[in-house]
Amino acid sequence: MDFTEHTILIVDDEKNTREGLRLSLEDEFDVYIAANIAEAEEVLKNESVDVMLTDLRLGAENGMDLITKALARAKPPVCILMTAYGSVDVAVEAMKKGAYDYVSKPLNIDELEIVIKRAIRSRKVEEENVALKAQVTERYGLENIIGRSRAMQPIFETIRQVAPTRATVLIEGESGTGKELVGKAIHHLSGRPKSKLVTVHCAALSEQLLESELFGHERGAFTGAMERRIGRFEEADGGTLFLDEIGEIDLNTQVKLLRAIGERTIERLGSNKPIKVDVRVVAATNKDLSGMVREGTFRDDLFFRLNVVSVMMPPLRDRKEDIVLLVDAFLREFTEENRKSPMELTTEAVQALLDYDWPGNVRELRTVIEHGVVMSNTPKIGVRHLPMFLRDDSLRDLRGGGSSTKAAPALPPEPVDLNLAKMEERLIHLALEKTGDNRTEAARLLGISRRTMQRKLKEMGLVEE
Question: Which structural domain range is residue 280 located in?
């Protein structure tokens, strides 16, 4: 970071001290000096000051009073207190009044420069957070989509541009990248936020049930249809219909969906009466729909109708600079949910997250942070509090989560790494983590019987005899 563009205000009633500090710091910073509170206020009024370094004793005046006045300004500087009367009481009082830090006289210039640079970095981070929040909530209204990476900026811009229109939108991307959040943001900014946002998870329903879910049915339309049902298109009339996993819809239902979108008309199952609907359709998929069109498993006319505007969500491995922002948000969410004090990750834990490729994307990261919050009994979440696959390189490779920037792993240098029993234990731990400690499901995943799983868990000391 270039610090020469940052301004420092030095306030000290001793001329030799303030001039000496100015000479020592002006090679690194843009320095102003003042001998008292009045001169300091004049500088603050006319200049943009990043850091104010003030003595505690300013003749008959008090540096604490200057800090209070400086912090009351619309754009306050970061305040550092100098004092020859260094004590815990002075430090506590300075911090209570909003000072960033304090230094004791006689000053060590090298240490002072470190404190000032740290203060400037802190201010920059704070300003970036404020700017990001303003960008997200005021410009975009996307308070639930977190990211300031280069990969996310086109996403925000597309949402802002397309949301007020009536165009259908196709959101593509891997599972866990936040496609549903984008759909909600489009609805929120659509001019229809007070209308309904109705979501249909297409992959969860059979062909007949999906048709009934979308278009509704009349009594007696099929076996079990005991009464009339209003479909999701009618329910979303005047609002937005979000179709998740659109690639799972069969060809027969695709024909009816094409008509509903194109003609804004539906028919309930068991009825020939057309019903007009005013619905904005947003669809999402983790499949390659254009490839499915070439294969003949997805209609090209429906694809073109859905793909008026396309949003391609980047995987988390392509936007790793957003990981820290996402972690902060998830920490706040889960500490509050679990009634814990504020928590943070250690440097080693953050590095472990950055080194991982996140095949499960943001959804997987969210789960990992919840795991860390639950497993840590201290304000610090270390690597040992993260799931095992982030602690064990061999398990990370088995999950396909090794960093894509690293070379292919060489053969293990130590024979002990090839110990079959240890590898078996690692696989069992991994299977239990992936299934939420469901032992039956873990056994199925490993291709062994429940009885064999139980025996192995006893051998590992995880089940009492």
Answer: 153-312
